[in-house]
Amino acid sequence: GCLCSYFNENQYPDEAKREEIANACNAVIQKPGKKLSDLERVTSLKVYNWFANRRKEIKRRANIEAAILESHGIDVQSPGGHSNSDDVDGNDYSEQDDSTSHSDHQDPISLAVEMAAVNHTILALARQGANEIKTEALDDD
């Protein structure tokens, strides 16, 4: 629990900071007169992993939120209020090395499957957001 406030302060703690966080956590979970087992004890490595996972999770959520907004036709990237679709035409994507380029060569089927999977995830999350829905209702696909 005590990790969250550290995370809000600094998402990339260095070794010394991770040690400090680990010690703080151990102080919280330490029962008087009882030594923490290796499993319970927080180490700087555990802190490191926690932070890495937390960053990934936040990024994933941001991506999903962006995807949801986009699927509702809300333009995410351009705060200027104009649609950013007109900037895209100027760029030649074939030169780019990053992960977007390989999707051009992907066969349409697997692309469709991928899109379906993404949409499914978004739907599931959107439904999950409406907490009133009981999980049983999701099973009758």
From TrEMBL:
Subcellular location: Nucleus
Name the record gives this protein: Homeobox-containing protein 1
Key words, A-Z: DNA-binding, Homeobox, Nucleus
CDD domains assigned to the protein according to its UniProt record, in alphabetical order: homeodomain
Organism: Camelus dromedarius (Dromedary)
GO molecular function per UniProt: double-stranded telomeric DNA binding
Location of the region described as Disordered in the Swiss-Prot/TrEMBL record: 70-110
Pfam families reported for this sequence: Homeodomain
Gene Ontology cellular component annotations, sorted alphabetically: nucleus
Record SUPFAM superfamilies: Homeodomain-like
Protein origin, superkingdom: Eukaryota
Stretches with biased composition (Acidic residues): 86-98
Residue ranges of the annotated DNA-binding region, renumbered to this chain: 3-62
Domain Homeobox: 1-61
